[in-house]
């Protein structure tokens, strides 16, 4: 729901972004349907939009919204003649089979909404990122339910029509209901697989903000902030999960470079050319602290290894101080845990910096036939850079031109075309 721009409405918007995940999570535990829970929470928001401009924003707006949501949950059960059945369920949970009046059952329901908010949020995280949903649907639903973003904001962030996002969320909520996905935190062996899905969604959101795949902007900082907030919440809810802290550490350190990654006109500034004085030391400190938590938990998974790579950059006050040999080693460890052509390409960059472009070019050329990289512009970009360093300018120019034709991001395209021009004019072959 879009909120207008008066001071009261802006306050409502801010409160909603903070409180809506708690509201939806508490309601979803009771009604066992994410779609219904979101509708009930939206009803509470409508009530705030109607009343607060007249009465003023309450001292505890979150509690006001929660109270309004509770009343709407009770009304929901009454309207659907389900209050008696819900009363019986609550009675079983409380091991109290005595008959109660509707009013007493309603009071029990109201009280139960205040319990286990942390657990409720964790359940909502897992259901929003459930593997039964397509990746795009998981991303949209997570931003909607846990990020508090409107459908329009999500659509603008990913440069797709608002109707497309709305349809994805409708289908996602319908799928969750039809498949009777339980509103619970997975246990045992299932936890690792489900947690992997959650972390994947959060990092996808972060990466789309950090290096936009399309459009006119090099970065979309708001998406990075949303992903960081979700990661920090998850770290509080699952403090014993090392990979959660690994992902948070990775995002904190990467986000620390945000101010240095774009020039005055929004043009990209590559890592080795960045003004490291602009890097956010608080975020770096937070990222290193997250890595320390990983160490204590003894869990160096893929995200933790990527965070360690980011930490190598963060600890280097000057670009030339970077320990590229160590970074190459970390990528090799990462490739053993999570083999991927993209990881191998990143390892090639580190090898090139540590041991020279010729060694790196061998790795990159071995990736040329990899189907998943066929239209991946960064393969051509990296190869162009290595060829440039080797003085093979005509070949480098062709690679940069090819990379520019593959990217959908305007800023990145401009950067690649500029790199192609650095290679000089096309030289004619003499007869």
Structure description:
By secondary structure, this protein is mainly α. The protein is built from 20 helices and 2 strands. Strands 1-2 form a two-stranded parallel ribbon. Helix 7 crosses helix 9, helix 10 packs antiparallel against helix 11 and helix 12 packs antiparallel against helix 13. The longest helix is centred in the first third of the chain and has 25 residues. It is elongated, with a radius of gyration of 25 Å. The N and C termini lie far apart (69 Å). 41% of the residues are buried.
How do the helices and strands line up, and which of them pair or pack?
Elements: H1 7-31, H2 34-55, H3 61-79, H4 83-93, H5 102-112, H6 117-128, H7 135-145, H8 151-158, H9 162-178, H10 188-210, E1 214-215, H11 221-237, H12 242-255, H13 281-297, H14 302-315, H15 324-337, H16 341-355, H17 357-366, H18 377-389, H19 393-406, E2 408-409, H20 410-422
Parallel strand pairs: 1-2
Helix pairs in contact: 1-2, 1-3, 1-6, 2-3, 4-5, 7-9, 7-10, 8-9, 10-11, 10-12, 11-12, 12-13, 12-14, 13-14, 14-15, 15-16, 16-17, 17-18, 18-19, 19-20
